[in-house]
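Try this one yourself first.
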């Protein structure tokens, strides 16, 4: 006897190395976990509660493994300047960009940050997201970094979703450390990191020519390693500083962006089990013409995830489904790569071994879609075919 069963559905289980399709399938649960998955005709027993999916498709609950969901203000005025020809990098060098969001975020209290982030979270949940990573990085001081991380966890308590937090204090140099980048990185390592470690599941950094050097990032990662925190990295977004290989050398969960990374970096990531997180929305929105080298990624066998990168500067995108389309259109991902990128590979990018596939024993997080074939999730631009979520075995 099962607790619940979902049937009259097609399944994309993500088992094996493709979509793992089961037509006319069933998923049965006990408690929070999947107890059985397979063709409906082989379902071994009855359930206390039966859900007829009316022919919908079921995927593992979607996982957005890279977001900056919590921030104050917006950067629509900066966007207008960029429309006039000023580049994202130029605005950053003038002291705008990330730092303008830092001043808006420092000025916002916990309730204001929560209220601004909640509708953004709800937009993602409405598309079938059941797990989300949320970074700090717009505080760049203990109090505001901690506030952002507390708000991220409060969002997870307010909604049926798992939130994983990442400390991104090494995102930019705050105004009070202007011209003293090395001193700020020491401040991150000696003060911000120890003071906020309890609120963070991982440590992230921005290694780039408008971010931190490889040596500074290496020092940050050594400090994170010493605290037992896993690391991840915004790597090689605007130029190749060897971020991919650096992340791999620290056994990072993921290296993200990777527009300018070299094939040697991908080989190191593949060997270390570091996931490549692709963020096509950011490439699109800052009009980056240099795309990540997907062919080299495939050749090295590095695993690829796909995420929204929702943030006020480089990607104000309140949609993960849109990233499926952008990943396929801009980067020529296959449908299987894109859909695995927001399910099983995204779970790996967060170090979560209990989800991302439809498989007995895993947590029962599901996303239901009213579509005729999985490719539709990558094909439509706009609109939302989500027909429900299941979180830890319960309809959410
Ligand atoms: O992932 N590259 C650094 N961080 C963000 C953008 C942050 C911002 O512009 O506010 C990103 O693209
Ligand atoms: Fe980011």
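Now uncover the answer:
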């Amino acid at each position: 006897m099962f607790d619940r069963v979902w049937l009259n559905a097609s399944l994309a289980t993500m088992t094996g190395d493709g979509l793992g399709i089961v037509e006319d399938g069933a998923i049965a649960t006990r408690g929070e976990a999947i107890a059985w998955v397979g063709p409906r005709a082989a379902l071994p027993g009855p359930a206390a509660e039966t859900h007829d999916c009316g022919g919908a498709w079921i995927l593992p609950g979607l996982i957005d493994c890279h977001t900056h969901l919590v921030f104050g203000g917006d950067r629509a005025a900066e966007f207008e300047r960029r429309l006039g020809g000023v580049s994202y990098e130029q605005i950053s060098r003038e002291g705008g960009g990330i730092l303008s969001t830092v001043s808006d975020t420092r000025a916002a209290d916990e309730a204001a940050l929560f209220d601004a982030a909640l509708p953004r979270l709800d937009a993602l949940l409405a598309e079938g997201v059941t797990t989300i990573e949320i970074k700090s990085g717009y505080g760049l001081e203990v109090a505001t970094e901690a506030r952002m991380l507390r708000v991220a966890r409060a969002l997870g308590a307010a909604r049926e979703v798992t939130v994983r937090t990442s400390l991104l204090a090494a995102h930019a140099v705050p105004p009070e450390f202007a011209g003293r980048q090395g001193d700020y990185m020491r401040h991150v390592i000696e003060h911000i990191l120890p003071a906020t470690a309890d609120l963070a599941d991982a440590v992230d950094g921005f290694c780039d020519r408008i971010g931190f050097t490889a040596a500074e990032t290496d020092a940050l990662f050594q400090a994170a390693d010493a605290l037992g925190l896993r690391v991840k990295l915004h790597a090689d977004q605007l130029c190749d500083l060897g971020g991919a290989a650096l992340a791999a050398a620290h056994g990072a969960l993921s290296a993200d962006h990777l527009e300018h990374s070299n094939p040697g970096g991908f080989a190191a990531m593949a060997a270390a089990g570091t996931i490549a997180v692709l963020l096509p929305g950011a490439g699109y929105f800052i009009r980056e013409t240099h795309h990540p080298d997907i062919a080299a990624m495939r050749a090295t066998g590095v695993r690829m995830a796909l995420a929204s990168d929702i943030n006020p500067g480089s990607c104000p995108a309140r949609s993960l489904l849109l990233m499926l389309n952008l990943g396929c259109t801009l980067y020529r991902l296959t449908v299987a790569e894109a859909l695995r990128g927001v399910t099983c590979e995204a779970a790996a990018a967060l170090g979560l071994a209990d989800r991302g596939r439809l498989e007995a024993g895993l947590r029962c997080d599901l996303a239901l879609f009213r579509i005729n074939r999985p490719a539709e999730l990558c094909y439509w631009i706009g609109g939302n075919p989500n027909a429900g979520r299941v979180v830890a075995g319960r309809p959410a």
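Discussion: The chain has a mean pLDDT of 98. The first strand starts at residue 2 and ends at 12.
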